[in-house]
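Hi everyone, sorry if this is the wrong subforum. Our group has a chain we'd like a structural model of before ordering constructs, and none of us has done structure prediction before. Sequence below.
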Amino acid sequence: MPLTGRRLSLDNPVHECDPASETYVEAAELRRYGQVVPVVLFGGVRTWITTSAEASRAILEANPDIGKDPANWAALQRGEIPGSWPFLTLITEKSMFNADGADHLRLRRLVSHAFTHKRITAVVPRLTAIADELLDGLSGDGPVDLKTAYAYPLPMRTICEFFGITDPDEQDELRDEYATMFDAVATPEERSRAATALEATLVRHIEDKRRHPDDRLTSTLIDIHELDGDRLTEEELLGTLHIILAAGHETTVNAIMNTVVALLTHPDQLALLRDGRRPWSSTVDAGLRWNVPLKCVYMRYALRDTDICGTVVPAGEPIATMIAGAQRNSDTADARFDVTSDDRGHIGFGAGSHFCLGAPLARQEITIGLERLFTRYPNLRLAVEPEELTHIVSPAINGLTALPLHLA
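Answer:
Right subforum, don't worry. Here is the predicted structure as tokens:
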């Protein structure tokens, strides 16, 4: 039962969130106070946060009382949010990630032209080739860090090539810039420099595709237009590339690693895949039900005083949507890893009209990545005890700093 006797408000937060905290331990602590509770985030930003799948779904699905436009965040409009806060760029730039209503539908309609079934299907041969190439480069002598050698470069190279970014040096630049932007231990100056460098990299990329168009995503987004002449503005184009690239690699990296750990620590489930009783595609939803690679989604805003699962969030106040800790707790069926379930009712890809457009690509990356890995190395095993694995210090990502494995 929730703790009682304490008035919940942003002036009276129940907890100061720590990016270094274990995801599910911190979620359980917050849940003691209710399904929607006030906290202080990394960087001193105060927000409400959901703690249950029910409350998170209520935020993620279309809700006329909740918006995504940061113009509705009263504290931001009063100048109270520090410019060094690492998520400020993502939540204020112009993209469908921060758009509401008709504006969101317009942007989603335009961008969806770049995520057709035909385009995703066409990626599969190249995705498979990248996976095999990376596996060819692994050495069986001593432990291998799967993150560095496979789990990171596979989705990063795939999404970059999907964009039309084929230069390895440019791919490395993007990787380093994103890593610094969302590194909780980086200084504000380092994060600011990374954000500036990232924008410059994407602007150069857009300019290059204008001069040398191809059939990849960026050129498609540049050329997208409806019969009425609608198209993405320059600001929307840049913001859309930023969001897709950020969401299209970091979460998939950690989804692959989290699911590898789940399979190696649940040999009965791995056996079902190896002997063909379950398809490798079943690992996607099993992994997202069990250990979602996303801690939280930032931000939504109460457009008016809004009741969410019994807690009233005042107008103008922000709401962070917990994903991993809300999805899996001891009171739900998702507290176990199960590849036999066909349940796709999790919130790992969002919900409602804000369901992830890139989910089909992510499904292919995870499925192919895992199938090729375990087929090539059937004796794969952890090189350390599960409790010795170290977690990323991040307010957003639920993943590992490294994944040492023995290949044989």
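For your construct planning: DSSP finds 16 helices and eleven strands in the chain. Residues 234-264 form the longest helix (31 residues).
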